Amino acid sequence: MSTAIVVGSGPNGLAAAVALAREGVEVTVLEAAPTIGGGTRTSELTPGLLHDHCSATHPMTVGSPFLRTLDLERHGLRWRLPEIDCVHPLDSGDAGVLHRSVTGTADGLEERDGRMWQRLFGPVAGHYDALAEDLMRPLLHLPKHPLPMAAFGASALLPAGVVARLWRSERARALFAGVAAHAFRPFHRPMTAAVGLMIIGAGHRHGWPVAAGGSRAISDALAALLADLGGRIETGVPVRSMAQLPPADVVLFDLAPRAVAEIVGDRLPGRVARAYRRFRHGPGAFKVDFAVDGGVPWRNEAARRAGTVHLGGPYDEVAHTERMIHAGRMPTRPFVLVGQQYLADPQRSDGDVHPVWTYAHVPHGYDGDATEAIVGQIERFAPGFRERVLAMSVRPPSGFEEYNPNYVGGDIVTGANTALQLVMRPRIALDPYSTGVPGLFICSAATPPGAGAHGMCGAGAAASALRHLRATKQTVNS
Questions:
Q1: What are the tens digits of pLDDT across the range 114-148?
Q2: Is 28 helix (H, G, I), strand (E, B) or coil?
Q3: Is 0.90 topped by the overall pTM?
Q4: Which ranges in 127-215 belong to alpha helices (H)?
Q5: Which residues pair with 336 in a beta bridge?
Q6: Residue 476 contacts by C-beta under 8 Å, 6 or more apart in sequence?
């Protein structure tokens, strides 16, 4: 029987382990932290309330081509949908409102903008599952669905700022900007439309669900499946060198590229080591979790029913703050994401005290305190919020890196979404999961298709590892 070691138990490490175990490989997962899950951990960050530590809302996870093959519901994973997916409030009290339905979203916009929304996102949503098969893998491949890919690519290659001009109303432009900002890139850069288009398309196809009981339910379900397949997980086992690892036919690293370079050391080819050490990380996140009595008193009624609320004001303001953080300057009014997961999953609350999940986009490695800036942004659209806060838990960029070393400088997407790194990450190679050392692979969110709890990075790396095992077996038998 072939053997494998997976270093790291985030959703990609666990997905890789499951993919290998399904093919009869004996798998051991080694996790440095006391608990599994990486970015999908959940705990009581404030007394009696369940807070997601990082990844919280999962439009691209529920539709993951790999996870959908696993029947994780059998292992306890349940998806819960809010009444409204996302709201982007404006200072006037108006808001852009994102419903699961393309038509429902379009109906909330001005007539011309609604038609344009349907024209752009109708085909993306309609072909989303086919698009996901091609887009959630290395881009250098022969597409299975060339026509939908070509149509999507025509818009995805554009800067987000160019796509935003399709709409005339601030409501529509701001709504798109808030989702496009998930790329952590200035809107004038090429391909910055891609992330916004994909997330909105995923939402219109599958909604913006949360996992019942917290995002840890995703990693718990993967771990339970792995156990059923005979795999093992060992926690509290930090790996700093290859000498610490037991013998195995393949090793997969759910780690940032620089960490892989440190562990593998001189065994890495020089060109690979240089690429891993030059791998670019993006801006950081500053997170504050609140315990809020009665929930957030949003001025806009739709925001009170939305699982996610984006705070950044009009399009031009969001574009300006994203340029600032990319340039290393902290804006007075940062872009803030607010998660109200308890609306879809009430078990996270304690009576009328609710967990509210927030983070602000901040410069890479930001060492200031953005707590008041986050509270100020919420107060801007929900006057009286401050008086409702009973407790809070703060995690700055350094705290994110301590919590998960893959989040270098607070970069929770594990790599800047530059045009090159969107196409070729973590290095220029036909097989981005290969380290250049036979039997060693990288499977973190630094590989295609990038950040998320979708497990597709792990599945892609496992496919490369399985090809290596088959080729090695054929060589031995010949």
A1: 999 999 999 999 999 999 998 888 876 677 878 88
A2: strand
A3: yes
A4: 128-135, 146-156, 160-164, 170-180, 193-206
A5: 311, 360
A6: none
The continuous run of DSSP H or E covering 43 comes out as strand 42-46
Dihedral in degrees, nearest 10, Cα atoms 243, 239, 252, 2: 50
CB 422 within 8 A of CB 287: no
Q: Tell me the C-alpha distance between 359 and 337, whole Å.
A: 6
Q: Are residues 444 and 457 in contact, defined by beta-carbon separation less than 8 angstroms?
A: yes
* Tens digits of residue pLDDT in 310-326: 999 999 999 999 999 99
The token pair that represents 3 in the structure block: 């053997």
Q: Which residues of 141-155 are buried (b: 16+ CB within 10 A; e: fewer)?
A: eebebeebbeebbeb
- Cβ neighbours of residue 24 under 8 Å, at least 6 residues apart? 1, 2
Sequence-separated (6 or more) residues with CB below 8 Å from residue 288: 358, 359, 370, 371, 374, 375, 392, 393, 394, 395
Domains of the chain (ranges; CATH) run 3-77+212-280+414-477 (3.50.50.60), 83-210+282-403 (3.90.660)
157/28 Cα distance (integer angstroms):
40
Question: Nearest 10 degrees: CA dihedral of 73, 105, 334, 55?
Answer: 10
User: Angle between the 111-126 and 128-135 helix axes, to the nearest 10 degrees?
Assistant: 60
What's the rounded Cα separation, in Å, for the pair 208 and 267? 43
Contacts of 299 (CB under 8 A, 6+ apart): 89, 93, 381, 382, 383
Prior bond of 449 cis (ω within 30°): yes
